[in-house]
Amino acid sequence: xxxIASIIDHTLLKxxxxxxxxxxLIAEAAEFGTFSVCVSPSMLPLTVPASLKLAVVCGFxxxxxxxxxxxxxxxxxxxxxxxxxxxxxxVGAAKAGRFDLVEADIASVRSxxxxxxxxxxxxxxxxxxxxxxxxxxxxxVSAGADFVKxxxxxxxxxxxxxxxxxxxxxxxxxxxxxxxxxxxxxxxxAQAMIAAGAxxxxxxxxxxxxxxxxxxxxxxxxxxxx
Length: 226
Description:
Subcellular location: Cytoplasm
Largest sheet: 8 strands, parallel, barrel
Pathway: Carbohydrate degradation; 2-deoxy-D-ribose 1-phosphate degradation; D-glyceraldehyde 3-phosphate and acetaldehyde from 2-deoxy-alpha-D-ribose 1-phosphate: step 2/2
Pfam families: DeoC (PF01791)
CATH superfamily: Aldolase class I
Protein name: Deoxyribose-phosphate aldolase
CATH topology: TIM Barrel
Number of helices: 8
CATH architecture: Alpha-Beta Barrel
Shape: globular
Strand content: 15-25%
Helix content: 40-55%
InterPro entries: Aldolase_TIM, DeoC, DeoC/FbaB/LacD_aldolase, DeoC_typeI
């Protein structure tokens, strides 16, 4: 049975996080076997074990930075060792129906992230209608994003929902991955997101989620992934 740790970005994005907190995060991620750690750009450069990828946010958390600022931030993070960039769209542009601006913003950031490094696009799905979610996901795919991601976890409208993940998954239809993030605090919730189509999870409380997974496996072991 494959642990969900293998698709978790173990995350620490609190503004009060210290360098010591990030070092503890990295140690936890190595212990848990998560896919990556996800941190703020001010924490770079960092040394992480070879088993971990390093994800860094961009335009976080509001997305209201100019495209030039987001692009420069992403470029600097890549130069400082980031393997993956999680950028926030301008949600207001999406709400105004300016999906051309959303796509141009993403494409500019994509231009400074060379393959095989990864671009994830945070759309704040809880703040969007279904039609807006579809349009933003299409813009992200057109701009070359590798993943669409539900949430920053900081928006007052909330984080990931099963419904949003399912819609995002159906929209990208294998052309990009789907990262569920924001409010995933239990193994049950994580399972639901995966069942809806999530291929990556953003989790800050990974220890609790993985402890629940281990407990469930011990109580009722089954064959197969997840």
